[in-house]
Amino acid sequence: MPDTYVGAIDQGTTGTRFMVFDHAGQVVANAYEKHEQIYPEPGWVEHDPTEIWENTTTVVTRGLADAGLEASQLEAIGITNQRETTVVWDADTGRPVHNALVWQDRRTTDRVEELQAADKVEWIRGKTGLEADAYFSATKTEWILDNAEPLKLQSSRGGGLRERAEAGELLMGTIDSWLIYNLTGNHITDVTNASRTMLYDIRELEWDDELLAEFDVPESMVPEVRPSSDEEYYGYTDPDGFLGAEVPVAGALGDQQAAMFGQTCFDEGDAKNTYGTGSFYLMNTGTEAVESDHGLLTTIGFQLSDEPVRYALEGSIFVTGAAIEWLEDVDLINNAAQTAELARSVDSTDGVYMVPAFTGLGAPHWDGRARGTIVGMTRGTRKEHIVRATLEAIAYQTRDVAEAMEADSGVETTSLRVDGGAVKNDFLCQLQSDIIQTEIARPEVDETTALGSAYAAGLAVGYWDSVDDLRQNWQVDREFTPEMDAADADAMYDRWGDAVERSRNWATED
């Protein structure tokens, strides 16, 4: 009997990764492929769902081949995905009718403002735990049905997209649903992804008829909702398909919930922050959906088979790693690794603050019309100051969320588990510890998003017996403790608030 493993498809904002893990949670295969970022208009962001699926088959095949593994050695596949990004496809052909609208896309801001003007924000929050924002899937689906020019590659049947949706001819879903559909032929999502659509009641655990009506989304379009780790499985890969084997697809989690799961934040009060394109700070609140009074989201953290849902508080920061990408785009740096060297070369930012509100501000501000801002520059400002200010902005935004998290939960953060590409930067980790004045714990396996979805799938098929097995796998790579005086950190953070105010409500014209 050959050694067996669990595979994880990690479909992110900028690319798709396939990883294979062993019993100890160690990586035995890893392959990655970028996909195109499509910007039809300012503030609009799209992906090609077909390209994403093709890249998925590429990385799975390449990852297995590079590691010398057979698909039959996979006991299960888990999926994790960029959340909120929305695909609508033809139920007959399986072809998308339009590009996916990405979570960063702001084209439905006007619709959100209509909801605000109609005093529907609290009504939506009460059902979904979410802010009324263009970030979520509801307004994206509505926009596609009402406004999209259908792609020519769909079937040639007549009728507009809305009419076709009402006739039961179209399906919608987040990226996990799109991948599960293509892998198994089944239209399924998990509770964490459903909770990000602004169409799902997180307490009743069902698609909400009133919200479906508000956004004019026919119920026939939405997927079946299952636990994140599902002993009944979502389905099997086609033995005659690209894998050439029948492998159970048995787990799915939105990327931030997957990172929380991979960081083994299984107990109430456990918290993690993932530094990717954006940053997402989640705290496990147990079986209680804690309402936020400080601009955070109440969301579903995970659900194991035959167990109650575990909830989380979340602070969603839209731009962190993407701010470092912007530095590269405008030729201030050659690569992300250079940021630490440049930031260390100056003692401070010389009073410069950078607010990376390129796609608006998320938690706790929720201003879709905020825009990126650099303030405090003088004739002596150099690129080193701007680079350092960008790294500081990542730390300040995290403190914004950390303070809101403590105020809502009543739990003081003593240690924060971190993951994502940016935490390879020791300078940023130390800066983060200084700014929020708490311990930062970086794990050995920092691809915790993929690891979390592998854990969910592996638990479902019995590859791991219990979450206690997973806790034993978690190992610290390095801990960072505050070196800055608390009063100095507070003074720097106070001025950050002034910079944020200058970025707000900027994009007032469409």
Automatic annotation (TrEMBL):
InterPro entries listed in its UniProt record: ATPase_NBD, Carb_kinase_FGGY, Carb_kinase_FGGY_CS, FGGY_C, FGGY_N, Glycerol_kin
UniProt binding sites for sn-glycerol 3-phosphate: 13, 83-84, 135, 255
Domain Carbohydrate kinase FGGY C-terminal: 272-460
Amino acids binding glycerol: 83-84, 135, 255-256
Domain of life: Archaea
Uppermost EC category: transferase
PROSITE patterns named in the record: FGGY_KINASES_2
Gene Ontology BP term (one): glycerol-3-phosphate metabolic process
Pfam families, A to Z: FGGY_C (PF02782), FGGY_N (PF00370)
Record key words, sorted: ATP-binding, Glycerol metabolism, Kinase, Nucleotide-binding, Transferase
EC number from the UniProt entry: 2.7.1.30
Record-listed ATP binding positions: 13-14, 277, 321, 421
GO MF term list: ATP binding; glycerol kinase activity
Binding residues for ADP: 13, 17, 277, 321, 421, 425
Family: Belongs to the FGGY kinase family.
Function statement: Key enzyme in the regulation of glycerol uptake and metabolism. Catalyzes the phosphorylation of glycerol to yield sn-glycerol 3-phosphate.
Protein name: Glycerol kinase
Organism: Halobaculum magnesiiphilum
